[in-house]
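Per reviewer request, we include the raw input and output of the structure prediction for the construct analysed in the revised manuscript.
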Amino acid sequence: MPQTAETEPSATVASVVEGTKLRRVVGRGDTLVLMLCALVGLDTLGAVSSDGAQAITWIALLGVAFFVPYAMLTAELGSAFPQEGGPYVWTKLAFGRLTAAVTSVFYWITNPIWLGGTLSITAVSTFSAFFIGLHGAGEYIFSLLFIWVAILSAVLSFRVGRWISIVGAWTRVVLLAAFTLTVIVYALDHGVHGFGASAFKPSWSIFILAAPVLFFSFQGFELPSTAAGEMKNARRDVPFAIARGAIGTILMYGIPVLAILIVLPASQVSSLGGFIDAIKTVFTVYGGHVGAGGAVTLTGAGKALGDIAAVGFIWALLSSGSSWIIGSDRSLAVAGYDGAAPRLIGVFSNRFGTPIVVNLGSGVIATIVMVLAYVLSSGNGAKYFSAVLGITISTTAVSYCAIFPALIRLRYSRRDVGRPYRVPGGLAGAWIVGGITTAWAAFTTVMLLWPGLGSADPAASLPAGFAGQRLQFELTQILPLFAIVALGVLFYLLGRPTREQAVASADMAAAQELALDAQPVAPA
């Protein structure tokens, strides 16, 4: 009889008691919505589009050479090992708790940095472009509201918090569809920005810039599996959501990027505001004009529709942050009650069934990142955006360097576990898929840590705001990585008391009674 992941004899007393707080309320539709909000992050559309027509070439390449193998890998792992914590559990079963402890910190910390960094600065920039220019206290107040609404959605029970993701998913569909249709109208009225077939010809200099951002943009298949213990049927719903999410994501990235490039030349597309600039430009067909210097003024219906689109864009950013916080916080919380992090981190709320301690910690870190960004960047939003986006992508890529090869290892060490979906091709197929995805993660990490590696002019690949400042940029990227590794090791050491209270499957009932008597007081 095949094993199931649930029979692994490595549970802790803490995992038993926290498991009783999980509520199986996540259905197939919720799984797909959470995945779409994670995969389709509109904040990177400008960064991708700034690479010009080649961006389409690289979207197609990564779609085939990374996105498809990545989908297959997570479909197998998510359906074969449907336990709360997803990536943490896969890494632990494959490589042990210490590796999983460090990986879970990398996987988690990316998201509060992203929320308080690139997402909040993009939201502020969008609000300022369409409504009232935010400066000083206004920037802080808006960013705090943005961050803590996302955190609140993670703190509340999934039945309540999921509505930000549901609305966010539909907002993406409507916003991107409306934008694409408006581009067609604009093109019929004003013509298009032309580029020949040669513009799509790939080059190494653009590839090393585009590939890491696209790698980051195409992440999120594993996110619903972080809440697998709350799914009604993870074995069935995870492969279903991945198949549909893959198709939707390629379309929702490729078409808008092409539309942006039709409207604006690559030289006018910025990483921070490319998508917003394109929206303002095309919405002039409903009312407004583009000035001689390129400044856009929206009036009448153009202004009204532009404002609606701006609100939708900000909500889409919020739902991206919320979805990733909901998922990554659960992964770290599982590490907490499994003995790979301090016990307090693994406490779930009795009332909401959510990892409220980690949720609040994420909010605090996001707030600190936001404040430091405004203080240290001295108003240089482009420089700040580049630095934070780089560390956000690299921390995620490092975590995947352990998560992706787990597929190969588990094919050997857990070969008898039933797999509702299996990567085709036997062990050779697992090696190919696991190897390709791991190689992409390693390549992304290297390219982010040393932009321009292998190019004729490496200095030209430094992000916006860092021209001639290679050392300063490297310090902003490398020092945080060392700090995160140290934090992961520290968490593992602090989790020892929890690990020592391990129980076998046969003793689960007795352990549950013991755990209920000894459990810490959980937040309301």
